[in-house]
Amino acid sequence: MKFPRRYSLKEIAALIQCEYLGDDDFPVMGMNEIHVVTPGDIVFVDHPKYYDKALKSDASIVLINKEVECPVGKALLISEDPFTDFNKLTLHFQPFQRSEKLISDSAEVGAGTILQPNVFLGNEVKIGKNCLIHANVSIGDRCEIDDNVIIHSGTVLGGDAFYYKKRPEGFDKLRSGGRVVIKDDVEIGSNCTIDRGVTGDTIIGKGSKLDNLIQIGHDTVIGKNCLIASQTGIAGCVIVENNVTIWGQVGIRSDITITEGTVLMAQSGISKTTTPGMSYWGSPAMEAKAKLKELAFIKQIPKLIDQLNKKDNGFKK
To answer: Which intervals of the chain form a coiled coil (predicted)?
Structure first.
């Protein structure tokens, strides 16, 4: 998320009422999670395990819960609770805006686009040309849809990220200030849910096709010409490269990459980054041919035990 103007370190510290290390006028251009930070951004960290990663990231400002040595060329915001203060910044720069009607006055809809009854367009939504948005689709604030896109009934774009911090009193929600971006020639089936990014964008690439009943988590990026079948669940911060095929009921964990040309067979559980062009099956998934060989060997176990018993080789009948 980029701020509407350049802010100073002193201004940002005043917003969240915390101490800081760095020049008063140190430039602050935005805020992002660690996987999408760029120079000028704030990143937050609240666990010693991740201090080094945050301090060495591309972020210029680190919102941290301990005063540590500040790297050259960076600044620190010292906070008792970086998670809460990061939320304060999100709510300041992207506050919730109530909608008063189905189609927001600030929404933009391109020529030739058809909106069926009961479509909801939130604030600052942008839709390109020659799209077809079927009945009862909900598109949240600031989402962007390019040209020639089809979205079927009941789909929700721009729901909040599923991201919580466990506290003694319960779960504390990380606020979502990002967007969903749908590129040209995408088709999305019925009753899909695509969550907005926390600070960045969840993206569906040009020409990709999604079946019904698919969940895509926050900040996930789907590449070009991907085919995703129904009941697939993709966690947050996943990268799916171009020309990937994902069959039904596949589950994909967060922070991994499904590399170009990968095929994920039905009901696979994907826990690691894949190898380009390979097919996977099973849970935990492995290369499909190897998995089939493994199953063939497993089927031979009763026969081998029977043979050993007949030889009286230490096995009781």
So the answer is: none
